[in-house]
Amino acid sequence: MNQHIRTIAILGAGAVGSYLVMGLSDKYKENLWVIADGERKDRLAKNGLNINDKVYSLHVKTPAEAHGVDLLFVCTKYTQLRDSLPDIETITGEHTMVVSLLNGVDSEELIGRRIGMEHMIYSLIRIASHRIGNSIHFSLPKGYNGIYIGIPNQPASQDPRLAAIAEIFADTPVTLHLSDDILLDMWDKFGLNVSRNLPQAILGVGIGVYDDSIYADAIMRRMRHEVVLVANAKGIPLTDEFKAAKWLPSQRYSTLQDLDAHRHTEIDMFSGALIRMGKEVGVECPYNEMTYNLIKALEEKNDGKFDY
Fold it and tell me: Which distant-in-sequence residues (6+ apart) come within 8 Å of 275 by Cβ?
C-alpha cells in the first residue's frame, strides 16, 4: 500500500467534503480532486463550493479519471453509500487508501466488502456545520473535535499509513487525531449521535432541551444505554459516560436539519443499524425501535403521505 500521498480525492461534496476542500485546497491544489460526473461535474467545476462565504474552485474528476488515487475520502450521505459503491470500486487502485468519514459504525465494512478491507482506514469526524443560503458554514475545530483515524486493535504508531495521512494535514487548518482505540472512539460518537441527535429531531428543538427537560434527558440516557449494551456485547468497552464538550443550546444536529429541509434522514445508519446489530448479539433496543419508527413517520409526513 502506498505510504506517500501525492493525490487525494473526495467523494461527496456536502459539509464533510467541504471541510476537507477548505482545509486541503491551498496545500494540494490541482492534486485535490472532487469526484462527480455528468451535469453535477459540470456544475461543480463551474461554480465551485461556497464555504464560510468564500468560493473555492474545484478540480473535478469522474470516478474513472480518479482511478488509482493515493487517498480517497468517502463523504457521501449514508443513504447514498450503497449506490456509490461502484464508483468507489472504480476509483480504488491497487495502492489506494480509503477513509470513510460517514457517521455510524458500519460503513468501513460495507465499503471493504466491495473493494477489500486492506484498503480501509477506520475513521470518524467531529465537526458542527450549518447551511446559510448556498454557503456551508462551520468553525474550525480544535482539541476534542476534528478527524480521527486508526486501525482496529492496533496502536496508531504501528501503521505507517496513518503517519502518511497525518502528514497531509500538517500545516493545514484541519485537526487530526491518531487513535489507539478507533473502534471505541467510533462507538462513542455513534452513541452520541443516537442519543442526542435523534430525540431532538423528533421534538424539533435545539440540544439545550437535554439541560432544560428531565424527560428529554431521560430519553437521551436510555438511548445511549442501548448503544452501550450492544457495544459491550460486541466486546467494545463503551460506557454510559458522555465526554465533555461545548454546545450551543440552539444547535440542531444533522437529523433535525434533514427533517427541517424535508430530506430523508440517516436514521437507518443510527437506530436502524443499532437494532440490526442488537438482534445479532441478542440485545433488545426498544427506545431505538420507537425512535426509528417515529422518524420514519416524520419522513413520510414530509413526503406528503399524510397531512391532516
Answer: 285, 288, 289, 292
Count of H helices and E strands in the chain? 12, 12
Q: Which of 31, 39, 40, 38 is nearest to 10 (CA)?
A: 31
* Distance in Å from the first CA to the final CA of the chain: 57
Kindly report, residue by residue over 39-70, the tens digit of the pLDDT: 999 999 999 999 888 899 999 999 999 999 99
Among candidate residues 136, 100, 120, the one with its CA nearest the CA of residue 23: 136
Query: Do the Cβ atoms of 8 and 31 come closer than 8 Å?
Result: yes
Q: pTM value?
A: 0.91
Q: How many CA atoms lie within 13 A of 214 on its CB side?
A: 0
| d(C-alpha 153, C-alpha 156), whole Å | 9
Give the type of residue at 198. L
What DSSP character marks residue 143? T
